[in-house]
Design goal:
By secondary structure, this protein is an alpha+beta fold. The chain has helices at about 1-15, 20-35, 40-45, 75-90, 90-110, 185-195, 200-205, 240-255, 260-270, 305-310, 325-335; strands spanning about 50, 70, 125-130, 135-145, 145-155, 160, 165-170, 230-235, 275-280, 290-295, 300-305, 315-320.
């Protein structure tokens, strides 16, 4: 096992990048404009909002109507172009995970028998903020129940892919033709593997003695904040355990296309891998309510599995300063004082 995780650690130190940032941006820009060009005037009006709109910072992961255009209002060709845009922003495995999560709405519809919220795999929305171009600021949001993904472009570069929220209900499909489906199963398994590997001394630091949070603590806040930085530090883990922690971080980074994933990991390396901590709350056996957090100087990853008999997963990656590209935008607007500043919205 050690050998396998040494390989992962090496990759984490120097992930191969398949295309320079300029090429990535042009590919995404082309896909965004191809999708927008396929829309009629009414559809485009619903899809495109001003970049400085307050809505850009208004996100959630519950089933509800959203601003933007859902699959149900797109024809077959438009859907293909919308999904093509998503594929330019995600890795293949990330795209497959996101599509599996969307498909679970059909499972929920059967399980709940029409009771509770509307379950519809076509109620997932694409929203474009601003005008996609090689200059200026614009963004993409893809959102629906248990999916909230955001990308921000500033002056010809994708500067942020945060927040990144994914959920799975059920976490594991227990019956029927989809039995065994676990789109976020690895996030559960790796976290549990890590906490169960801790010795007694390590558990004193890594396992917190408090109630399991009912959801991720940062919720759908516009700015991520965690009051305490607690848990066992990376430096207090042995080589195998460090490999598991790195694997877990990389698993979630790799939802994004490789170039965007590498930018995340580079930021973590710059802030110091030794400064990352892991904290676990709750039971360590499958079916017991549990929560874990991975936190560094610049980011926090939260995982929660407490609802529906601990078979309902939420996992989010937040950047303390870079959600919605706010860190880059602040610098940009400082340099261009006559521009509107989206960070000035009151919330």
């Amino acid at each position: 096992m050690l050998r396998r995780f040494v390989v992962v650690a090496t990759i984490f130190g120097a992930l191969a990048v398949s295309a320079p940032a300029a090429e990535v941006f042009k590919e995404v820009l082309g896909s965004a404009n191809a999708f927008l060009s396929s829309l009629n005037e009414e559809q485009r009006s619903a899809t495109v909002l001003p970049f400085n709109s307050d809505e850009r910072l208004n996100w959630h992961y519950v089933p509800k109507d959203r601003l933007g255009i859902p699959f149900q209002k797109l024809d077959e060709k438009q859907r293909e172009l919308a999904l093509s845009l998503l594929k330019t922003l995600l890795s293949q495995s990330g795209f497959d995970t996101v599509e599996t999560i969307r498909s679970l709405e059909d499972v929920l519809k059967i399980v709940e028998g029409g009771k509770g919220p509307v379950r519809d795999h076509e109620m997932y929305y694409f929203t474009i903020f601003g005008t996609p171009s090689e200059t200026g600021n614009w963004g993409v949001r893809y959102e629906g129940h248990h999916i909230s993904l955001h990308w921000t472009s500033v002056e010809g570069k994708i500067v942020s892919s945060f927040p990144q929220f994914l959920g799975s209900n059920p976490g594991e499909v227990k019956d029927g033709p989809r039995k065994g489906t676990r789109p976020l199963g690895a996030t559960e398994d790796l976290g549990r593997s890590l906490v169960k590997s801790l010795d007694e001394k390590q558990r004193d630091e890594g396992v917190l003695k408090c109630d399991v949070p009912a959801d991720v603590i940062t919720g759908a806040s516009r700015e991520a904040a965690i009051e305490e930085n607690v848990g066992i530090p990376y430096t207090a883990l042995n080589a195998d355990q460090q490999g598991v922690l790195i694997s877990l971080i990389q698993l979630l980074a790799n939802i994004q296309r490789p170039e965007l994933a590498e930018e995340r990991l580079a930021k973590l390396r710059e802030a110091g891998i030794d400064n990352i901590k892991f904290a676990w709350i709750g039971g360590t056996e499958k079916g017991e309510k549990h929560y874990y957090r991975i936190q560094g100087p610049t980011f926090v990853i939260e995982y929660d599995n407490t609802q529906n008999h601990a078979n309902h997963i939420h996992v989010v990656w937040r950047d303390f300063n870079g959600d919605f590209g706010q860190d880059v935008l602040k610098r940009h607007y400082t340099a261009h004082a006559d521009s509107a500043h989206p960070g000035e919205h009151k919330h």
